[in-house]
Amino acid sequence: MSPPLPLLQGTLDVLILHALSDEPRHGYAVSRWIRQASSDAFQVEEGALYPALRRLEARGWLESTWATTDTGREARFYRLTDEGERALGSETRSWNRYVEAMARVLGRPSPGTARP
Amino acid sequence: MSPPLPLLQGTLDVLILHALSDEPRHGYAVSRWIRQASSDAFQVEEGALYPALRRLEARGWLESTWATTDTGREARFYRLTDEGERALGSETRSWNRYVEAMARVLGRPSPGTARP
DNA sequence: TCCTATACATAAGCATATTATGTATACGAA
DNA sequence: TTCGTATACATAATATGCTTATGTATAGGA
What we know:
homodimer, alpha+beta, 3-stranded antiparallel sheet, DNA-binding
């Protein structure tokens, strides 16, 4: 098994937003979901996860309530607000723009390369 | 014109390595090349550029010499070492793995990945 | 009884980005 | 000739946010 990729700063937010886009989840479940959805490529550390959730809530993108999990434990459940839903869209588009820009640069043929 | 995308931490190194893959360049030219190759999506700030160049040189990926530009100015030219060449390959593959993992999570087909 | 998974939280450390500031020169326009 | 702009380097202060380490607490199985 290849070790998990360290998260690039700034990419966690959109992962969390996406994890919450279908249904409310608590922090630990968000972490698990991201790990599984990425085929173990991403392993979200608690030290990144919980501050990020609070950050996004402070920004108005999430709302949280304490509730009981199906295994009978107390946990803080987060759900996307309307603003968070819009943010998921714009953050996703922003990521895609970034990927496209990287592809333009990295896909650029070297001018020193010989051509026919 | 849309404003330049803020650089995600960790992605500058591979951009610089690629900028130097065809021929040696000095810092300012690296910055200009990245801006143009990305169609103005990336604008590398000096405060990020020069420390990054020294960092990569300290890591053994680059070597530098002072020389004169074609406009008659003194500038520090950087070239890729053999180790830097290998690093370009592995860093590019690492970026591609990251993009693919993000695509798996965000649930859309990979928008096109770059090769070294 | 003890280990593991679950569930939260925060502090310390670290890497690296942005912003601001400084020096200096070449070159064209006013 | 002067002045603004592009070129060319460099560093300090600041901000962000990720990793690592540490702590608390409970549920459930071996």
